[in-house]
Design brief:
about 325 residues, alpha/beta, 7-stranded parallel beta sheet, 3-stranded mixed beta sheet, 12 strands, globular
Length: about 325
């Protein structure tokens, strides 16, 4: 099996690779060839594949996608993207990375022809939805994004579905909810505070909360996100059907409920490290996001996530803090 991962140096890319290494392959098969690409040099986990190819490239640049798929990877995890905050502040860079890079990849696959039909797992986002929202949003709710990032994801979901329909590939669009708690340093995602108000206090640092306590979102851990991708790669076209883009399950809660979970898991002293400082830019972006989803179809297909935000915090402590945190 040959697996290609774009955006492999990113957080979800690293979590996916760690999961594949832990599983010893994908879908019960060893990975004989592994190609990892990103705009910075990715790292391959030990023991996953012999002599993995570590590629430092911009997928939107001419010829890069053709080179990456020349070896005909069987499964492609397309994770490369500029996140929401970055896409909103830099219009051209957002469209280049999120749209042009994806289109280049799909076209490179199509042009090989000769029966080549890889499985392509695409990470989309709940940012594809736009207000006004029903109480719980189904997969087929109208897509009217209110950010450039959301627009990129809608366009790419549509492209993936069309290339799938035309038989050029087997696609699955995985709409991720808020992936929390993200390890490492904050990125340009407008949703970054959902992680920072948990991650920083557990590390003994102060954190800033830019929105009100009643803001609601649906969350799943990075561990669950890697699980979504691996499970998506195991599904057949017959199981998925023609509607290949779907929203993943998670835990729906308010910011206030997040902080209460932090208090339950880590104590008052840790929770007191969060300070409220409203940010109009962040509040404006977040106000246009959906918060609650009907993920019946994804659950019926076998996608699973945590059952409480307390569990999400414990996953972060176990996976990223070696089981410890700063009291």
């Amino acid at each position: 099996m040959h697996v290609l991962v774009t955006g492999a140096a990113g957080m979800i890319g690293r979590k996916l690779l760690a999961r594949l290494a832990r599983d010893g392959g994908l879908n019960g098969k060893p990975i004989e060839t592994l190609t990892l690409t990103d705009i910075v040099t990715p790292e391959a986990p030990a023991g996953l594949a012999t002599n993995p190819v570590l590629d430092t490239s911009d997928l939107a640049a001419p010829g890069v996608a053709e080179r990456l798929v020349k070896g005909r990877p069987d499964v492609i995890f397309h994770l490369a993207a500029i996140p929401s905050g970055g896409a909103e502040t830099d219009f051209e860079a957002g469209y280049r990375a999120n749209l042009d890079g994806t289109r280049n990849l799909l076209e490179a696959i199509r042009k090989i022809g000769d029966g080549y039909k890889p499985k392509v797992i695409y990470t989309s986002s709940i940012a594809v939805y736009g207000a006004p929202f029903p109480h719980s949003i189904p997969d087929d709710f109208i897509l009217t994004p209110l950010t450039s990032y959301g627009a990129h994801k809608v366009i790419c979901e549509t492209l993936l579905a069309d290339y799938n329909r035309r038989g050029f590939l087997e696609g699955v669009g995985v709409r991720l909810c808020g992936i929390t708690v993200r390890p490492g340093k904050p990125n340009l995602a407008a949703s970054g505070f959902y992680s920072s108000i948990i991650r920083e206090p557990l590390a003994g640092l102060e954190a800033t909360l830019p929105v009100s306590d009643d803001i609601t979102n649906t969350h799943a851990s990075p561990r669950a996100a890697a699980g979504f991708l691996v499970h998506a790669a195991s599904l057949t076209p017959e199981q998925i059907g023609p509607r290949i883009n779907m929203t993943m399950p998670g835990v729906c809660c308010t910011v206030g409920e997040q902080l209460e979970a932090l208090r339950r898991v880590a104590g008052d002293r840790v929770a007191a490290r969060v300070h409220r400082r409203p940010d109009e830019f962040i509040m404006r972006i977040v106000a246009g996001w959906p918060s609650r989803f009907d993920c019946t179809r994804a659950r019926e297909l076998g996608f699973t996530a945590e059952s409480s935000f307390d569990e999400i915090i414990r996953v972060h402590i176990e996976d990223d803090l070696d089981g410890n945190f700063v009291q």
